[in-house]
């Protein structure tokens, strides 16, 4: 059967290109302030052709959010189930989150600022995914407390500290800047763990354990 019009080999390539272009526009101008005509102009498509690729402007916002959350949740679920101590898992989760932030700065800006424009099932799904990630962070932090590595503190407050330290990185970081995700994660976790850890807990070998894990379990 011949391919339907518009669904040739380049269809998905073009659609992904449009999502990238929309993310850049939304990050610069805001979702609400960006018209569909502007997106079409940047994409080099008339309005009808643009809708053929994207369906609706809200669909673009869904795709942008999904590009952040899908890989983040996939990695977070895997890290949560590792047979490793919770402090190491927290460090791995930190670097994973920062990898995604640095790789998708425009998308992260839109993810943080414009998710409120989603409606109905799209908004509910996004909020459910966000809560799942928060729950994974909270469970790892609680496990660190249960193991004695971290002192007893409010798990939700600890989770918010972790998220606040990481989630604002997009406001100033640059993918070609001097600090990559691994460096930032080392520094962020050194700060967090020194505040969270129990008296006498030795964090000195954490980075060595991270390196040993990477050697055993290549990305």
Describe the overall structure.
- The protein is mainly alpha-helical.
- The protein is 70% helix and 0% strand.
- It is built from ten helices and no strands.
- Helix 1 crosses helix 2 and helix 7 crosses helix 8.
Short key terms for the protein model shown above:
DNA-binding, transcription, TetR/AcrR family transcriptional regulator, 219 residues, mainly alpha, elongated, transcription regulation
Distance between the termini: 39 Å
Name the quaternary structure. Answer: single chain
> So how many helices?
10
What summary fits the major beta sheet?
none
User: pLDDT under 50 segments (min length 5)?
Assistant: none
The shape, in one word, is: elongated
Would you tell me the overall average pLDDT?
93
| Portion of residues within helices | over 70%
Compute the number of strand runs: 0
Task: Give me the strand/helix succession.
Answer: HHHHHHHHHH
Strand content: under 5%
| Rg from alpha-carbon coordinates | 20 Å
Structural class: mainly alpha
